[in-house]
Amino acid sequence: MREPDSREVLRMALGTVVFAVITVVLTGFQNGWHSLTTVRGVLDVLVPTLLWFVGMLIFHLIRHPRM
Hints:
Blueprint: H1 6-31, H2 39-63
Helix pairs in contact: 1-2
Transmembrane segments: 12-33, 45-62
Keywords: Membrane, Transmembrane, Transmembrane helix
């Protein structure tokens, strides 16, 4: 199996950052920008972003098994 190149890892990282920015913008429009200063507002952004990151990690491990 080949090792992932840096462009592939960078693409995954940028995808996660873009997803987080989109989530922040949508949450801000839906709940008001002041909601992003509360714990619940931060969790509304953090939880989907972490789920996205775990999904990307699982997808990466499926494509590049360590065995």
